[in-house]
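$ run holo --ligand "magnesium ion" --emit tokens
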Amino acid sequence: MKSLQYLNKYFLKYKWRLLLGILFTIISNYYGVQMPTYFKEAIDSFQSNIDHAESTDFLWLAIKLGGFYMMLSIAKGFFLFLMRQTIIVMSRYIEFDLKNEIYTHYQTLDQGFFKRNATGDLMNRISEDVGLVRMYLGPGIMYVINLIVAFTMIVTQMFQISPSLTFTVLIPLPIMSILIYRVSSRMNAMSALVQKEQSMLSTIAQETFSGIRIIKAYSREKETEQKMNQRAENYKNQSMRLVLVNAFFIPTIMFLIGISVLIAIYYGGILSFSGNASEKISIGSIVAFIMFVNNLTWPFASLGWVSSIVQRASASQKRINEFLETKSNIVNTNDEALDFQGKISFQHVSFQYPNSDINAISDISFDVSKGETLAIVGSTGSGKSTISSLLMRQYDVQSGSILIDGKPIQSINLPAFRDQTGVVPQEVFLFSESIRENLRFGVNENEINEEDLIEVCKLTHVYHNIQDFPDQFDTILGERGVNLSGGQKQRIGIARALLKNPSLLILDDCLSAVDTETEEIILRNLEKGKNDRTTILISHRISTIRNATKIIVIQNGERIESGTHEELLNLKGCYFEMHEQQLNQDKD
Ligand SMILES: Nc1ncnc2c1ncn2[C@@H]1O[C@H](COP(=O)(O)OP(=O)(O)O)[C@@H](O)[C@H]1O
Ligand SMILES: [Mg+2]
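-- output --
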């Protein structure tokens, strides 16, 4: 329950809507209470004159009661509508705010957070959990308000007619609330299971369709089908149980209302014949009581339902709060403008990933300035990409320091630094949007024109591919658009980084899917602008980095050799061996 207090700030924000909602609830219930009272008086006055009554008088009474019932129902209904319009709409606003709050918070968090938490979990917080919380904010709150208002108003009226009859007819109602609470909780638990089965089912279906080629190639259709049938069977069984519990729900309510009405008639009947004047009640009163009991049914039924909703919402909000309370390990403390001069220095940097106890890199040092190209070469898993992440301050190092223009990376304006950097990661990520939108992802729309786009695409040797597409720059990528080859993706990735005109360009093994000739062309093109920037070239292929100003060779996170291409070849060490090996490979 405590976790839900987090939402109070939103109630405060929308307090006028909430207050208006309460007002509408009161008005709506006021009309509801008028009905039985009016019936009672009409019937009683009719009954006292019943000896002189003619048949037309009966008709008049029926028309009068019917007309009044209709008018009051319309009035009550109208304010019920307004009540929903204020309170449920408020809950939708809060849902919107909360989703935005969580989403915005996600974006402030560091890489480590996203590695720790599965994408599915992050999505669930925003969709499923917020959805459950909204049930508390909307229907939950609304029914509680309605219960309080209705109960107070109706019981006051009932008490004025007969206290003892009031107590007696009310007995079944709390029992009903408890029963409904039990049934709802059970139903919620079961529908959670059904949901889980459902998502397993769709996961299997999805995997089958995306992996259909391999399934057919290995002719595993039968086994896949069996797996699917097994899951579908589980899903069916869980659903059947839910349906069974569900089927008890309405009958239970009807049964308990029936008992209340029965008590009203039986005990009311006894009281109406009672000799004791202080306890005697009229026929009209019995009619009113039956109507009152009916009016109280739904509020009491909702009480049980609301309790289980509140329970679920508080569990969800607790999970949401855990995420909202997570603080980023990487915090920017400097908002001063930054004019990056291109000097980067690693000094005895060692780093372990948060969830591992081996050094991804150890004691790495290097310096690189504007106009120079630093190349990092090494086999897969040697720590190359880690250096690139550390340089972008996706993690903070455990020992040693990274200096940007001589200042520790922790003290500079991080967004500004990232703004002046173009990184092309190993796995280029392209959005399912047009090529144009993907290219200008890192820049503002008005800063570039068509010529700029063409230029960077020519530099990265991808323009001729784009020209072949039917919609050229407006070709949509991904799901329903064109799917690019690995090499095309990488080249668009590089073009995207170049479009930023970065002062620091980091290419992390992003020419791996490009053939050596195209690679040559691109590298030669990149030479043109290199004096205005610092370049860090990461590769496992020696051909890529031959011309770099400095090359460092790393293995298992340690620097084992460094120098220029010629110097390293003369060393006849690791680099030399790699070179020989790769030369032979190219010949094969
Ligand atoms: N997010 C991570 N969490 C834990 N260990 C990681 C993570 N990323 C990389 N590593 C480990 O760090 C080492 C260096 O990885 P990486 O820098 O990606 O190598 P490279 O880019 O040279 O192939 C590897 O042993 C790898 O398993
Ligand atoms: Mg890598």
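-- notes --
DSSP finds 20 helices and ten strands in the chain.
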